[in-house]
């Protein structure tokens, strides 16, 4: 306990925010984590992710002979967002990414490895690191175990942070709603790690109209709490139109995954036609799928792609759900997914020809691992909103800022609670732009608090 007779740090949100709790505890600070969902270990956005955390200049990259640097990572962010990202924040996250990942492995015990079997759109080097099974729930489980073993971290569940106030004594108070009533907890600092506002339909309709009609596939607790708390304290907001979409959500609420596409699959609409370059990115392709004929479609792959994607828990869950259709040839596949056989055959032949000779197709796609070959598989997909990428403006230490650039005393934000590094809209999203700010800003906040 600190001189304020409360925890040094109150963390609101037991997803990526748990990294702040662990890092703060490792530096001798006491921490209270406040979480509204009793099933947080599997019900928040960190748990629902594919556990891909980008890092530039890590030991895993060196071992694999991958040349990378924070400067190269920053250049990729700049290119994907067309220069619209928060440069200072992107530089801070790229700069801390390797140290964060190595700390997670060495101090927290995460069994991390570098993904080298395929590259995500926009990353110029293999830099996504993950855990076995490539599932966020497995990653978060290891973090939760470390939290529960720490003598300096306490969990308050279920409980919801509803406000942050400065008391008459000048001490910061976290206002927490619990089953036993409201509590005011004195603390040195509060980290808002409650994600964004994807679960608030009104805010989504206001700020993200292009994706408002899509399925929301994220935590039910992402209702904009951090926005409201921060704005009451005079915090600035930015990039509220930014989000991560996904075009590979299945009717079974599983994720087919975009590794299918990067290994050579194509996406067709309900008429059997492709409607764009799938390799531009899964985030922006959600709106493209929503705008396509029928507002839904199919990922068409073959046995080679299927085998390559079995390393993903999400993909295996999709296959086991029974939504996948299989067929010996294009005509049988057309019958299975109820599209015109001539249209689908022409679509697959055009894609095969482009993949075989490496020339850009009519949509500009040039990235093909190999041509698709019969027999085929098809996975039904719908567009989805995964999480918002705009929020409270923070600096390189994760401190929440006012419009004049001054810091709100004692207030930090991470993950979807903070304005991220994806620029505007969905097209600037790079794989890991959700998890890196969630884990990285939490890490930076803990270190800043410990140093001050």
Automatic annotation (TrEMBL):
Indicate the segments forming the FAD-dependent oxidoreductase 2 FAD-binding domain, all copies.
8-434
Which SUPFAM superfamilies does this one have? Answer: FAD/NAD(P)-binding domain, Succinate dehydrogenase/fumarate reductase flavoprotein, catalytic domain
Q: Name one GO molecular function term.
A: steroid dehydrogenase activity, acting on the CH-CH group of donors
Which controlled-vocabulary keywords does the entry list? FAD, Flavoprotein, Oxidoreductase
Does Amino-acid biosynthesis show up as a keyword for this record? Answer: no
Cofactor(s) essential for the protein: FAD
Is Flavoprotein set as a keyword in this record?
yes
Which biological process, per GO, is one annotated for this protein? steroid metabolic process
At the top level of its lineage, which domain of life is listed?
Bacteria
- State the protein's name: Fumarate reductase flavoprotein subunit
> Where does this protein come from, organism-wise?
Nocardioides lianchengensis
